[in-house]
Amino acid sequence: MDGNIVELGDVNAGALGRNLGKPYTEIPDPFGCCDSYGEHFSNLIERSARLLGIPVEMVSNTELYESGEFEDATRYVLEHREKAREVLGHYQDKVDEEYVPFNPICDECGKITETVTAVNTDEGTVEYRCTDMEAGDQTIEGCGHEGTATFREGKLPWRFEWPAQWEVLGVDHEPFGKDHAEGSWPSGSDVARNVFEIEPPVPMAYEWFTLDGEAFSSSSGHVVMVQDVLEMIEPEVLRYFFTKDPSKARDFSVEHFDHLVDDFDAFERTYYGEDDRDDSDADEKAAEIASAAYPPTIRPTLAARFDADGAPILDPEDKSVPVTDDRRAQLDELADDEFSGRVRLPYTFAAVLGMTDDPDLRESIARREGHVPDDAPEWVTEFALSRVERAREWARRTGNEFDYELKRAEMPDVDVDADTEAALDELADFVADHDDPDEIQGEIYETAKRHDIDIGDFFSVGYRLFFDDEQGPKLGPFLAKLDREFVLTRLRREG
Ligand SMILES: [Zn+2]
Ligand SMILES: [Zn+2]
User: Fold this and answer.
1) Is pLDDT at 8 greater than 60 in this prediction?
2) Can the keyword Isomerase be found in this entry's annotation (predicted)?
3) 41 is in which domain, residue-wise?
4) Which ligand is nearest to the Cα of residue 29, counting in written order?
5) Which one has a higher pLDDT value, 318 or 413?
6) Distance between CA 190 and CA 196 in Å, rounded?
């Protein structure tokens, strides 16, 4: 499985249509890599969780039915189908005397069927006829076959299956999207209490989150894969995103990953008490959240970066590994102790370093700018600089202002006349004691005007000096983000 769901246009969608009405685990994988359509997506979830260092145990509904784990719950619902109809009738219109809460799989065509003509709970079988079925605005044609199915050869309708899962799997906490909050949850908890006679799990309804301001959509390719995200931000930053209040809508903005990473860095500093906290309510709340949420957020990263003796592992292959119960306390102690010495380069500064290929140059700039202390242990330096490749990948994928190659090592050849030389020197003097992006941008215009230089030409000289190119990012804000000394040296054409 390559985990690619983005290029839906390439897949065999026709095969999907022909298989409408069959269980997902019986539909061939349209991507051609797994045993079934269902398995493709459960593999994807499992793999993403593993990348995030979240231990998951996958349970297959299909296997639960086939192995008989659902058999008792199915028999129970069918024995109490009178009550089941009554309860479901409060939520759905089409529940009549004929309604049977079990959908056998047709022995002939493999589709899920609705028309059960007889129930034999002692034998554990139903009789059925494979009839047409309405699914949304589509009609799935039945083949007309009449047959017998055991309780292992079919499934409970969703409204009963969900509560049955709670019972069979012993679910005590159930998070669900807000769509279920209005639909399946009220009926599910009612079915649990009044049909199964169990207490439903503790619910948590969560809001949707959007991707760069729009709803996620796999059919239009508006999705992002965990593996791709982790090429741009650290796993702990992605985990941090999920610690934000799930009852509020959140936007997962790839374009603004710099904001998310800055937020995470602040959250981390709050945990270590490195922020300028006062005793305002907001700061106290932030400290409370950080002390609860930071340890689980960072643990899988620590597990990947420190061995069992607490010694740092340089350049670990796994960026994030699941945490076993007995290592939890040990890793929390590590976080408070060893890891508190970590260094995080500000994300946009890392993006600036990413505009330079030379790793030694990256390191020396980071040191010169005071981000990496001289006495930093090797793992701290390596850890700090590991953000550079991620920020660079972010620049590449979003094509933002850092997606240019900065000519640091050598000054490009630029011919400038005396007026332009004077203007560049003046601009350098201005930048020497201003760091506001808009002020620098404004001053570029003013300087050009004072020296009667065409503004387009002046910007071209700027891009030539920094990128040896005709164009580049918006210059003022960009120069504000670069390390000052380099900007001054370059504007003064000293190297
Ligand atoms: Zn697959
Ligand atoms: Zn059939």
Assistant:
1) no
2) no
3) 8-58
4) 1
5) 413
6) 9
* 156 & 190 share domain: yes
Distance from residue 95's CA to the centre of ligand 2 (Å): 22
Domain boundary among 309, 324, 341: 341
Q: What's the pLDDT at 183?
A: 85
> Contact at 8 Å (CB) between 128 and 112?
no
Q: What is the pLDDT of residue 214?
A: 92
In a domain, 25, yes or no: yes
- Please tell me the number of the ligand nearest to residue 146's CA: 2
Confidence of residue 79 (pLDDT cuts 50, 70, 90): very high
Q: Hey, which residues does 138 pair with through a beta bridge? A: 135
> Could you say which ligand is closest to the alpha carbon of residue 33?
1
Distance (Å) from CA 111 to ligand 2 centroid: 6
Q: Do 382 and 428 fall into the same domain? A: no
Give the ligand whose atoms come closest to the C-alpha of residue 143.
2
> 10 C-alpha to center of ligand 1: Å?
13
Q: What is the CA radius of gyration of the chain?
A: 30
Q: Where are the beta strands (DSSP E) in 102-172?
A: 103-104, 115-120, 125-129, 133-135, 138-140, 146-150, 154-155
Residues contacting residue 223 through CB under 8 Å, at least 6 positions apart: 5, 6, 211, 216, 217
Ligand nearest to the CA of 109: 2
Ligand 2 midpoint to CA 117 (Å): 14
Q: How far is the CA of 148 from the centre of ligand 2 (A)?
A: 12
Closest ligand, as measured to the CA of 140 = 2
Nearest-ligand number for the alpha carbon of 27 = 1
Across the chain, mean pLDDT equals: 91
pLDDT the model gives residue 21: 84
Is residue 319 located within the same domain as residue 251?
A: yes
Is the domain of 354 the same as that of 316? no
Q: Quick check: is 2 in a domain?
A: no
* pLDDT for res 137: 80
Check whether residue 487 and residue 369 sit in a common domain: no
User: Ligand 1 centroid to 25 CA: how many Å?
Assistant: 12
Is residue 48 included in any domain, yes or no?
Answer: yes
Shared domain check, 94 and 30: no
Query: How far apart are alpha carbons 426 and 105 in whole angstroms?
Result: 80
* CATH code: domain of residue 424: 1.10.10.350
Q: Rounded to the nearest whole angstrom, what is the distance from the C-alpha of residue 152 to the centroid of ligand 2?
A: 17
Q: For residue 406, is it within any domain?
A: no
**Between β-strands 103-104 and 209-211, what pairing exists: parallel, antiparallel or unpaired?**
unpaired
